[in-house]
Amino acid sequence: MAVQSDADIVIIGGGNAALCAAITAAEAGAKVLILEGAPKAYRGGNSRHTRNFRCMHQKPMSVLVDRYDADEYYEDLLKVTGGKTDPELAKLAINASEECQPWMEANGVRFQPSLSGTLSLARTNAFFAGGGKALVNAYYRTAQALGVEVLYEAKVTHLSLEQNRVTAVEFSYQGESHILHPKAVIAASGGFQADTDWLAEAWGPAAKNFLIRGTPYNRGVVLKDLLDQGIQSVGDPTQCHAVAIDGRAPKFDGGIVTRLDCVPFSVVVNKNAERFYDEGEDVWPKRYAIWGRLVAAQPDQIGYVIIDAKSLNLFMPSVFPPIKADSIAELAEKMGIPAEKLESTINEFNAACTDGDFHPTELDGLATQGLTPPKTNWARPITEAPFYGYSLRTGVTFTYLGLKVDKTAQVQGPQGAVENLWAAGEIMAGSILGQGYLAGFGMTIGTVFGRIAGKEAAQYANH
């Protein structure tokens, strides 16, 4: 495809935030060009791997049941971030999420009722029929029907910033270098997690053992280019959405299926067969995102999950089958951890379990006594053969170091707002996610700020 040189707006990135921006800007009459760094088969960034969208609503709406008001949503966010959030931007994302859901449906996204079990989120999260890939494909169809042009494998290398304005966008495409001079630019090109050297700069050498759950194309090139030119940054480079995933997952792009949901019903140990955290602290949707950092802090950045036969069917099946053994000692040998020590750890845990009623889908208070660390819910002795195990590694979804924006999604430079530059999605999510993660909230941020950025950029370009 020839490079069109007359686009009003250039959008860098091809995921959810970029597409929401493109559709909104095109509907407002702007001529839009998307530069997607990935090949067409991998288009969509991390949005390909998503499943749901966290949505405020005052009453049942679409597939969402009951109500989930703005105050409860904000409280949930404060719990996972420890208060590290920009209240104005956070509340903007939360309040706008209600109107986004019907907008998504109007633009081709289909929803389905949520799954039951440990990830039951029917009240808070709207699940995509066909997952994130279907959402991405729907948005591309809508965007292209509106006349949005898309170039794949178009890698942006530099934005020229002069006197608080972007004057040029440089990129490579089909073996050649190109320069465009659009009226407005929207950066929606994600975090830097796929650049493992940059991760190691932030975290230290341990980061080389991390797996990257998301796209291998989010390398932070545009983010670094803008930060190097004095654009204001937000967020901590060591903070990210990181979960504990199956240690057998690929280095990149394993996606959501590599996550393990068995932790609440297990004992988790490190390579020395020692427990290191309360596996039953809270329901899994509120705690799965802390386990990536917990595992990252362990020797060799690895953990091991141990369950028994009575817990095998309580969680979403894993994409790789668990390691299976008839005894704890045999399981330890198969997993390469000290057998005697694991037997001792499991025996100590079993002795600390108390009698009570077990309720797998809610906090049941079935706790250990006299054990450090404790297990505060779902603590049942691990005694029923066969025994099963998984290895756990830190799986990074996206990083939180990003571009500082205001409530209009406008990027903030050394002299205040950059006149014709907006940002949406993971590249600015660190404004709202200072630490921790809330299931489905990345899609909320991308959708809300993508739409805002598209509207604002189109308004600027049209006038």
Automatic annotation (TrEMBL):
Required co-factors: FAD
Keyword Flavoprotein belongs to the record: yes
GO molecular function, one term: oxidoreductase activity
FAD-dependent oxidoreductase 2 FAD-binding domain sequence ranges: 8-434
Superkingdom field: Bacteria
Keywords, in A-Z order: FAD, Flavoprotein, Oxidoreductase
Record has Flavoprotein as a keyword: yes
NCBIfam families hit by this protein: CobZ_N-term, PRK08274.1
The protein's name in its UniProt record: FAD-dependent tricarballylate dehydrogenase TcuA
Organism: Leucothrix pacifica
